[in-house]
Every structure is written in C-alpha cells, then in structure tokens.
Design a protein that fits this description.
Layout: H1 6-15, E1 25-26, E2 32-33, E3 42-43, H2 44-60, H3 65-68, H4 74-86, E4 93-96, H5 99-117, E5 123-127, H6 132-145, E6 148-152, H7 157-160, E7 165-171, H8 183-192, E8 196-200, H9 212-215, E9 219-222, E10 236-240, H10 242-245, H11 284-301, H12 305-327, E11 334-335, E12 347-351, H13 356-365, E13 368-369, E14 371-373, E15 383-387, H14 395-410
Helix pairs in contact: 1-14, 2-11, 4-11, 5-6, 12-14
The structure holds pyridoxal-5'-phosphate (PLP).
Pyridoxal-5'-phosphate (PLP) is lined by residues 98-100, 131, 133-134, 171, 175, 200, 202-203, 223, 236.
Length: 426
Amino acid sequence: MNTITLEQCRSLDQQDPLSGLRDHFDLPQGLIYLDGNSLGALPKAAASRVAQVVTQEWGQNLIRSWNTAGWFQMPQRLGNLIAPLIGAGHNEVVVTDSTSINLYKVLFAALSISADQDPARRVVVSERSNFPTDLYIAQSLCRERGFQLQLVEPEEIESALTRDVAVLMLTHVNYRTGAMHDMAALTAAAHAKSILTVWDLAHSAGAVPVDLTTSKADFSIGCGYKYLNGGPGAPAFVWVNPVHADRFWQPLAGWWGHAAPFEFTPDYRPAHGITRYLCGTQPILNMAALECGLEVFTAAQALGGMAALRIKSLVLTDLFIALIEQRCGGHGLGLATPRQHAQRGSQVCLTRDSGAFAIIQALIARGVIGDFRAGDGGVHKDILRFGFTPLYTGFEDVWNAVEQVRQVLENGEWQRPEFNQKHAVT
Ligand SMILES: *Cc1c(COP(=O)(O)O)cnc(C)c1O
C-alpha cells in the first residue's frame, strides 16, 4: 500500500466540491469534531433564528405566532425537509417528540396491524446490539401486549424470520460498530413471511442515503440531533408507509393528531395520514434550531445532495482506516466497522482490549472529540468511536486526528489518572 501523506489529504480538501458546506457551521477553532453522530454541530443560522423566535415571534407576536409564524405547521414543514433525505414522499414525515417515544408509537401500531391480520404471531425480532432505548421500549411494549422480544446476532436475522414473528425491528446503522444493514433485502425477506418492519434511522438520516419507499419499509423513525444537527434534545421524526398510515390510531392519540384539534370535541377522530402520529404541543424553539440544521441539507442539494455526501463520507472513513493502519500499528487497535462500503455507515469504530475510555479522554484533552462505548465483556469489545460528518469534516482533519491518536498511544499519556475517571455522560 502506498503511504498517504498530509499533502495528499490537503489536496483532497482542495478538490472537495462540498468543502464550502463547513461554513454553515460554528465550530470552535482548532477542534476536530468526530462526534456528530452523537450530537451534531451548531448551524451558524441557529443562534439568530432562535433569538428571533424568542424575541419577535414569542415576545412580540405572542399567541398569534401559531398562525403568523407557522408554528402549528412546523412538524409537517420540517418533515418535508427530511423526506428527501430518507426516500419518503411529500407529507409522509412529521417531526415530533423523541426517537424513543416515536418508536413506541410505530411499534405499537405495527403490533396492532399484525395482530389484526394474524393474532398467532407473537414475536418481535431485533438485534442484540441494537441501541438500548430501542430494546427497552420493545421490552416494555412486548410485556404490556403479550409479545416476546427475540434478540439475535446480525447473521441470524433472516433465519429468525419465522411464522410466529409479527415485527422485525432494526436500527439501520449500528450505533456501536457503524455496520449498516441492507434495508431493501431484509424488508423483502420479512415481507416474504408477512412480517412488518420498523427501521430506526438514528445513525442514517443525513449520514447515508436511505430509500424507505423503494425498500418498501413499513415504519421508520429517526433522530434530530445527530447527523441532522438540530441541537441537544431536538425533536425526532416519524414516517409511516402510506399503505399503513390511515389504518390505526397510534397509542398516544393526543389532540395534535386529531383531524380537527380546534373543534375541541370530546371524541378522538384521527387526522389523515402521518399527522395522526403527532401527540401534543411541540417544542417550537427546538424546532426552529432543527430547521436551521435541515436547511444545510437543502444547500447541499445543489451540490449533489445525499449521493455526494455519501461519496465524501466513504472517502473520509476509508482514509481514517488507512491512516490508522499506516500510522498507529502495533498499539492493539482493531477495526469493528465493516470495510465493505455497502455495509458501512458514516463512522469508524476501533476496538482495544483495554484503555479505550482513557484514550478517548486523552484525545478530547488534545481537541479531538470522539467517544467511547463500553463492550459487554464478551464478543463485543470496548469501542473508540469516531463519526465523520461529511457536511463539516475535512480530509486534513482526518490526518490531524490520526496524528493525535498516534501521539497519545506512543507516549502512553492515556494512562494518566485524570483520563481514567468516568463522567455521567460518556
Ligand atoms: C441516538 C439514538 C436514539 C435516541 O433516542 P432518544 O429518544 O432521542 O433519547 C434512539 N435509538 C437509536 C438507535 C439511537 O442511535
């Protein structure tokens, strides 16, 4: 393999048609931010937009802003900005609530639709290393409704799709490893057995191209504060295939999901389509910040959109893997992320038998922000996780990040006590 040089990384930046998108973000000088898969960066427009919503729309116009500033339509308006990123149609997505809560709604609906068709199906299949909140929500729903949750390894999914399965619930890109499922193939395998699918796009939306419509997925949810850069606690999104959208009252049937909320009738009458997946009043300030994040994707559209972002993301992650192998050999690092492009999201996860947490802390002290995810003491090792957001990460950043990893490993500074202290959020 040819040795990669800093000059080559710089020239990749010079040739990068997407490099200007970084100007849409306020990133601290000198920081290399590789955690946009956990909390996306601040869009430059957000601070003044939120200030304007506070001072003008709230402060001056008060309750009139529900109409005059379009507050009431924000779930649909923002949903329509997300739709092209995930292969959904116009008016098929709403932004609302959190990922966890939206999962509760769609999994409940999927179980109800399945039970209507074939009450004998009593199993939900998911992946053992799915993000915990997804598993917890599924556990609680299964208990409540008399289903069983069956957890399997990725290679066991297809064989687990038997006649007693109601729903296959998966996260498209695994949060620990960055491994990506073939959504179309697994959905087809599930449908061949009359099983409904629920896809969590928390690590996919804005990171990799997704095509819910062509994949014929049934239900989908995703996160607003990761690759969509909506800010801490930004509301999440929900999509339901139009063939199902009108079939069921979702379980949190609040007034925002009513066909005519301002008639204030005592009886619930669900709105048509995805609007019924709303529950109650939405956090308008968070919505305003998320809209700024989504507008960056609108700007990216003119430069090739998700297809162009995907190409850059793969070059970034390929480069990181190659540089780690070239410059950090002999330090016990392994690769948890698949090398095959079709199986990789937009992050690279390294393994190490010990010291992963402290190495991440030492990197953060040097201005390279990634994060740590604990292993299970068994097959899943501790992970050093690095997210590559093609909207604002450059190729020289990758070089510099690997150089810091090299120094931290070579001089052993990660072993210092201050890097071995755990905090509430890792
Ligand atoms: C980040 C993430 C979530 C977050 O759920 P919240 O309700 O926003 O806390 C859920 N699922 C997956 C797969 C995630 O990666």
